[in-house]
Amino acid sequence: MYNKFVRTSNVLNFLAGFTALETRGAAESCYMLVSGRAGYGKTGTARWWANKPEVNGVYIQAAAGITPHWILAEIVRELGDVPDRRREYCFGQALRKVALARRPIVIDEAEFCLNDPEVLESVRGISDLTEVPVVLVGYDKIMSKLAPYEQLYSRISAIVSFNPLEVVDVRACCTELAEVTIHDDLVEEIHRQSAGRLRLIKEGIGNAERHAKRNKLAEVSLDDMRGQVIINNWSKTGKGRS
């Protein structure tokens, strides 16, 4: 399978959301919120976008137990410096670095930051002073979890929801990622079994491609996959076999 990034409808919505953020009216409203269930491609999109040369974003993946100093230290490290062990000095480091670099900050798994209100407050302190865009990426319930944090919630100027991919997206993934031709009937079956989850779509493409190569097929259809596992969906017994 080719190692390529496919611009699905969710990706296009992400890009449109950031364009809306850039053209915001209030300078302090510099936050974009990206939400969706697991497997829809949020993390892959956030990393791809942050790594684009014209973006050069500061990508941070939050985790359980994150603290205000932890996130400030990560910002400092990503901007090429050694963080101070003292939180107040680390904040100053991060502020200076962000103000100089002018690079957007992407915080993935942002729901972990909500366990301690001061984590995102530390980021807000930097964004308020620098007006650098901040992209928060989290699970589908993160919007309601953020609502009580009015100081931060009011600064969100763009909201993007990652939804199940449509057949047209699955077809694009098959065309761009598979090293064999996948017929439309198999595309539709991959879409059905994956329920539009990008992670499972890639699994289906990989299984179809491997089966085709084992049998020296340049093209693979749904009929070719009869009796083969297309997607291992452990939550629904029997769903993965054609």
Helices and strands, with pairings:
Blueprint: H1 9-22, E1 31-36, H2 42-51, E2 58-61, H3 68-78, H4 87-101, E3 105-108, H5 117-130, E4 134-138, H6 142-146, H7 150-153, E5 156-162, H8 167-177, E6 181-182, H9 184-194, H10 198-214, E7 219-220
Domain ORC1/DEAH AAA+ ATPase: 32-141
Protein name: DNA segregation ATPase
Organism: Geotalea uraniireducens
How does this model look, in words?
Residues 32-141 form the ORC1/DEAH AAA+ ATPase domain. InterPro entries: AAA_22, ExeA_AAA_ATPase_DNA-bind, P-loop_NTPase. This is DNA segregation ATPase. It comes from Geotalea uraniireducens. Pfam families: AAA_22. With 242 residues, the protein is α/β, with parallel strands linked by helices. The chain folds into two domains: 9-162, P-loop containing nucleotide triphosphate hydrolases (Rossmann fold), CATH 3.40.50.300; 167-225, no CATH class. 46% of the residues lie in helices and 12% in strands. It contains ten helices and seven strands. The protein has helices spanning 9-22, 42-51, 68-78, 87-101, 117-130, 142-146, 150-153, 167-177, 184-194, 198-214; strands at residues 31-36, 58-61, 105-108, 134-138, 156-162, 181-182, 219-220. The chain has a five-stranded parallel beta sheet, sandwiched between helices. Strand 3 (105-108), helix 5 (117-130) and strand 4 (134-138) form a beta-alpha-beta unit. The protein is elongated, with a radius of gyration of 21 Å. The chain starts with 8 loop residues before the first helix and ends in a 22-residue tail after the last strand. The model has no long low-confidence stretch (mean pLDDT 93).
